Amino acid sequence: MSKLKDFSCAFHGNENMANQKLIYPAATRNQEPILQVLKRFVTYDCAEDDSPFFLEVASGSGQHLAHFAPHFPNIKFQPTEFDETLLGSIKYYATQCPTKNILLPIQLDICTDLVHYGFSEESIDYVYNANMIHISPYECTIGLFKNAGCYLKPNALMILYGPFSKDGVITPDSNVQFNASLKSRNPAWGLRDISELIKIAADYSLTLIDTVEMPANNKTLIWKKN
Ligand SMILES: C[S@@+](CC[C@H](N)C(=O)[O-])C[C@H]1O[C@@H](n2cnc3c(N)ncnc32)[C@H](O)[C@@H]1O
Questions:
Q1: How many CB atoms sit inside 10 A of residue 130's CB?
Q2: At residue 224, does pLDDT exceed 60?
Q3: What is the residue with the minimal CA distance to atom 17 of ligand 1?
Q4: Three-state DSSP string of 50-107
Q5: 176: Cβ below 6 Å to ligand 1?
Q6: Percent of the chain at pLDDT above 70?
Q7: Quick check: bond before 215 cis, omega within 30?
Q8: Which one, of 78, 82, 126, 124, lies nearest residue 104 by Cα?
Q9: pLDDT grade for 15, boundaries at 50, 70 and 90
Q10: Mean pLDDT calculated for residue range 37-58
């Protein structure tokens, strides 16, 4: 199955604003490998009244946090999404969560400074984003790093999942084809280069501390706020 098809969703119902659950096949496949990475990097030691705050940018269907949250019952998960038609599905997953630690979703454009959504600088413990920066204009990549740099606490992490190029080279062929198909749909889309991301990150006080190889030629990049 091509990656483009991977991002299609099984849609239940005619209208998604009324909390109908969406299922993205790709999210179903990658949620467990990503959870295993989170278990390595999302470590916390908190008092009962001090829940670490985990912000997801571009929640899509809402499946990822639904899969992660029960494994981290002391963390408060905040889903967000730009596309308002997805908020119903995200809300569905949040309200069904057995551990009740997923907040209701916020409609959020990552190109906008997070102060507009009520966030305070250096208040977030984790920023998480999967599969957005190659399927959105470059401004969204900049916005993600800029907001993470400003709103993460010192030493806090941004966890970024998706396909990437390295030093201008895309591997393997399936990712080359995926990149071409993205660009044919929108010339502003395309795989982002890790070397370029490292330069952007430096402008916003973030350092790449680990790169985890993932199934299907994806990676998880771990960034630390300086
Ligand atoms: C391929 S989906 C990934 C969804 C989910 N993270 C996943 O892995 O299943 C890309 C998402 O990026 C979101 N997106 C696009 N532009 C955005 C922006 N400016 N701010 C926040 N999210 C955006 C889209 O609405 C879409 O839900």
A1: 22
A2: yes
A3: 82
A4: CCCEEEEECCCCCHHHHHHHHHCCCCEEEEEECCHHHHHHHHHHHHHCCCCCECCCEE
A5: no
A6: 90
A7: no
A8: 78
A9: very low
A10: 86
Q: Is the predicted pLDDT of residue 152 greater than 90, yes or no?
A: yes
Of ligand 1's listed atoms, the one at least distance from the Cα of 26 is: 9
Mean pLDDT of 50-78: 97
**Rounded-to-integer distance, Cα 135 and Cα 140, Å:** 9
Residue 133, pLDDT above cutoff 70? yes
Nearest to 24, CA basis, from 83, 89, 102: 89
Token couple for 141: 């990549």
Q: How far apart are CA 141 and CA 139, in angstroms?
A: 5
- Ligand 1, pocket-test mutation among 4, 82, 219, most atoms within 8 A of CB: 82
User: With 0-12 CB in 10 A as exposed, 13-18 as middle and 19+ as buried, what is 171?
Assistant: exposed
Domains of the chain, CATH where assigned: 3-225 (3.40.50.150)
Contact criterion met (CB below 8 Å) for 197 and 165 = no
Token pair belonging to 87: 């908020």
Distance 153 CA to ligand 1 centre (A): 24
